[in-house]
Amino acid sequence: MKSRPVYAPFKLDLSGRAHLIVTNQAEPPEGIEDSLGEIEIWTVRPGSLGVPAPAAAHIRAFRATAELLPQLSHRLMRETTGLRFYTIGSEAFIWDAYNIAVQAGLGTGEISLHRAGPLVRRVYCTHCRTLTEDVAQNILPCPACGATLFVRDHFSRRLAAFMGVKVDAEVPGEIPAPEVFVS
Amino acid sequence: MMLLLTNIETLTPALKKFTFTAPDAAPLPHAGAGVHVVVEIPGPSRKWKNAYSLVSSPESTASYQIIVRRVEKSRGGSAWLHDHAKQGDLLEVGMPQNLFAPPRRAPRHLLLSAGIGLTPFLSYMHVPGLAFELHHCCKVEDAGAFRALLPQAGNITLHTSRATLDLHALLSRQKLDTHISICGPEAFMDFVLATAAQLGWPAAKIHKESFGGATGGKPFVAHLRRSNLTLNVGEEESLLDAMEAAGLNPPCLCRGGACGECKVALLEGVADHHDHFLSPAERAANNAIMICVSRAQTPELVLDF
Cys-Cys with B17: which of A20, A29, B9, B267 at CB 3.0–4.6 Å? Predict the structure, then answer.
């Protein structure tokens, strides 16, 4: 069974009064340089100075997603209606950002999500509830409970994670060869 | 259900409040905030079916109350209620229908109404804990009557001129978790929708109800292919009225072009759309018509009914 969100290519929604693009990539999407003046962009660039002043540039580079996401919540709580919110990056990141946006009151027609970057997944161990970040292949040991997990194509928007279930529950020790994610 | 008209209160020369109860005083079906009922109004030559929002508290099952504006160029229903209805009359009132409930997931509500469009919001005010701000616009001569209907509160403002309602500023300062609900005449709704669109409001955060849009117009002929009937739709009646007069029972709910229940496939002819349901693309496709409010641009229409 597949349960995967489907993403459209990035495109500005010109019905908005203002635009905020949030990405966990180092660079904003290509092709929007011409209209940078009207668009606010948040990126994640390791080694950057962190929390730059908003007025300093239309692009604010954060040091890590852990720095960016709490700021996003704060920013949206003060925002007024008319904003279009775009989130670009790994599925874990874009759905974390989505959940913050929904909490702030954004909804259908105001949020768009776009997949970018390496094909890695956040995995939820359905046995001990531990989350593992940046998983690149479909078999992994759970770092907390030690179960060997098979990553199903079953995505939780709430957790922004894929479900990992014990792969050798039927025949203990029988573990297939891992495969790298292709989607 | 047959209900007894137990009280008529004159609010202004053009506004009357009607109270209905069950003849045996039994409790009426529960009706939530935003509910409307269709009242069947007996005329000398024909019967009208008009939809009215309940203004009574959703908690109350003892009676239903509606406020009716006397429409000068009306099809006749509101004029009959104003001029001929009297205490003790028995009228057929449909089961309560809700097409305009407060959007449940919205933490904050901005309610905007004009004229008789206030009626659904009178029931909203009884919802416990509903966080709302209401702006109501009316004519100077009606201000007293509307003021009497509204509680005195900081979140309720009455405007007697469009100049005192700075809609642009009001919509500009709303936080992301606010939804707009609007009810009123066509021109008022268009004004709000245009201002909201200009400020980037998404359609999903705007909820609207409108009753009594254009129902009259140029007469036309409707051929109902499956029923093998040809109907003359007169100046003062809707296509739905004409079909009901011919003994048909087409599905319908709001009778105001809002709900989409009465959509019928259009086989030939060009429709003159007056509804709020079909999208611009669906209108352009010219293959469906909302029979309660829409009419014909061509002398004849052929419908799949």
Answer: B9
